Amino acid sequence: MSAMEIAALVLEYLKVVMWPSVVVALALVYRRHLITVLERVRKASGFGASLELADRSLRLAEQSEEIPELAQAEAIADDDEGIANLEGEGAETLMGRMVIAWSRLERAMHDTAVSLELGTGGTRNLGVISSQLRAQGLIGMETERIAKSLQRLRNEIIHHADEVVLTPPVVEGFVETASNIERVIRAAGTVAARAK
């Protein structure tokens, strides 16, 4: 092999290795910036399923803070059992925190449905309960919409759990929204019960 052939071979190897090397070098130099960007990823894809979790979860949390019935719910909940305090088995994991928040919300839905005699069917279904509470004038349209959006988000996460990577912002948004909706549903039940 001549010197010219060796030089050509080395040049070809350099061409092949150049771009991956540049990408790796840039990733190392800008790793903190990349981590920040990746934490804000709005869309996670896997096996054909695409979920815009972080954006939806945080948007729901922000919207749930604006629910008109929330102020009334917070006034009524002064003697409540600590809705936002997520303790117990599984609370240390992200999925565990979501499951506990949803479980408490389901308990509030069931208790409210039973106390208002809304019927036995769907007493743990947020969509059904929020529609019934709205029909009775106990919550507004925006609250019902946020409740149903939270239920859809929960269903997507649960039914695609093997494909979803939960991040702290997704979970915090979900837990905050579930806690706010729980307070509103409990307060609606309390107000309706006092009116009887």
Fold blueprint:
Layout: H1 3-29, H2 31-39, E1 44-46, E2 49-51, H3 53-65, H4 68-76, H5 94-115, H6 126-135, H7 141-159, H8 168-195
Highlighted features:
196 residues; mainly alpha; 2 domains; two-stranded antiparallel ribbon; 2 strands
What low-confidence regions span 5 or more consecutive residues with pLDDT below 50? 79-91
Q: Give the topology string: H per helix, E per strand.
A: HHEEHHHHHH
State the domain count. Answer: 2
Helical coverage, percent range: 55-70%
Structural class: mainly alpha
Task: Determine the mean pLDDT.
Answer: 77
Whole-Å distance between the termini? 98 Å
Main β-sheet, in a few words?
2 strands, antiparallel
The total count of helices amounts to: 8
Widest beta sheet: strand line-up:
1-2
The total strand number stands at: 2
Radius of gyration: 25 Å
**Large-scale geometry:** rod-shaped
**Range of strand content:** under 5%
Structure description:
With 196 residues, this protein is mainly α. Helix content is 70%, strand content 3%. The radius of gyration is 25 Å and the shape is rod-shaped. Mean pLDDT is 77; it is low at 79-91.
